[in-house]
Amino acid sequence: MNTYFRNEGSILMSVIEDLIIDLNSEDEKTRAFAAEDIACDGLLEGIGPMLARLEIESSRYVREAIVSSLKTMSGPELVTRSLPYLRSDDAFVRNGVIDILAMQGEESLQALRSSLQDPDKDTRKFILDVLVQIGSSAVEEALLAWVPDIRNRTRLVVAPHGVNLERYRFQQRARGKNLACMGRLSLEANPAFLLQCMQKLHYIDTGYRLFFSGDFDSPMLEQYTRHMVEALGLSDAVSFEPYPNDLNAWLGDKHFVVSCGLGESQIESLLTGMACGLTPIVHNFAGADRLFPSKYLFNIAEEFCERALGPEYDPANCRRFVEDRYPLREQLRQIGGIVNQLESEIESPCPVGGGSPGGICDVSASRGQRTCGGPVSVNL
Fold first, then answer.
1. pLDDT > 90: what percent of the chain?
2. What's residue 337's pLDDT?
3. Where are the domains of the chain?
4. Helix (H, G, I), strand (E, B) or coil at 359
5. Among 114, 174, 263, 313, which residue is least crowded by beta carbons within 10 Å?
């Protein structure tokens, strides 16, 4: 069932109303299937009823189905409606909402900003939990902007991305014209802009091909993206495939790994591609210049074409870049350091009347009011 192809509003409203009725059925399977259908069809009107049902639902099976369904949805309405449930007395609901908000990535940052000033201390703590799960350079920048003296009030620990190089086979390859875009296709991944870039590249050289690997996070985005492929005359140049079981084999005939994301949602795919010897072409999102050399970044579609057509192509250098900057062992070393520091601080009681220098502080407390704890870890 895909309501985006329905033209009559009355039919659409009937579908939503029926699903909401099913969401409150006495049969738990009916309730679970209703949640899945609401998410599958991207029915934003069902977000509020699903969250309300989650709060009162007694079946663990249905609760997990609701949370899983909401995690596949996206958009500001989901963020806005989810935030109040961080106040829930039910730990399952709170943890589920934290996961839902974290899945929204950087799209949820502005909504989370106001909640950092929430008078409820626990709510502020849960917001930090969400920010840590999002874990991008944008989070660090946002915290520094929202709480300028945060480094004086707490310790902000930055752990880099890590790539398990043993999993990805390097292949020395000749320059070619196959572009790979891997990972979940969401609004944050920005596939619409990538198609605009591909249209310009295809106009210059019809030999280039773009291969998407991954699923869409909403039916509406899928409908729009596939429509634009047709509208831009790219039917013979763009293809969509499920995420491969054998990524090394799938990347064997690819030459570039590309991303037009609004943030770091595709960073793992980019680094994986580089580890296998693909040259990255990365939209210059906020913080991208701290993650990749400028020669791999672009701002406009014309620069995208320059990166694909230019003389720079060195697979071995791409592999070395990941080996030097993003080895998994370095990430694990830094995380281990965080854990060791936490253990030492747990063993050392806080002085009465104030926190120890560098201990975690309540970022929303008034100046001079501090509470002790461990370091904040933002996984970059």
1. 48
2. 67
3. 165-325, 328-379
4. coil
5. 174
| Cα-based distances in Å from 33 to 52, 211, 219 | 16, 32, 17
Greater pLDDT, 162 or 315: 315
CB neighbour burial string for 350-371, b if at least 16 within 10 angstroms, e if fewer: eeeeebeeebbbbbbeeeeebb
Using one digit for the tens of pLDDT, what is the confidence trace for 232-242?
A: 999 999 999 99
Confidence band of 164 (pLDDT split at 50, 70, 90): confident
Residue 98: CA count within 13 A, CB half-sphere = 20
Residue 1 to residues 68, 143, 156, Cα–Cα distance (Å): 19, 42, 46
DSSP 8-state class, residue 189: T
Three-state DSSP class for 257?
strand
Q: 280 has which bridge partners?
A: 257
Can you tell me the distance from the alpha carbon of 154 to that of 84, in angstroms, rounded to the nearest whole number? Answer: 26
Please tell me the CATH code under which domain 165-325 is placed: 3.40.50.2000
8 Å CB contact between 285 and 264: yes
In the block, tokens 């969400």 appear at 130
| pLDDT confidence bin for 33, thresholds 50/70/90 | very high
Between CA 300 and CA 281 the distance in angstroms is 12
Q: Which of 38-42, 77-81, 348-352 has the lowest mean pLDDT?
A: 348-352
CA atoms within 13 A on the CB side of 152: 7
Query: DSSP code of 216?
Result: B
Torsion angle (degrees, nearest 10) of CA 22, 25, 30, 31:
80
282: three-class secondary structure by DSSP = strand
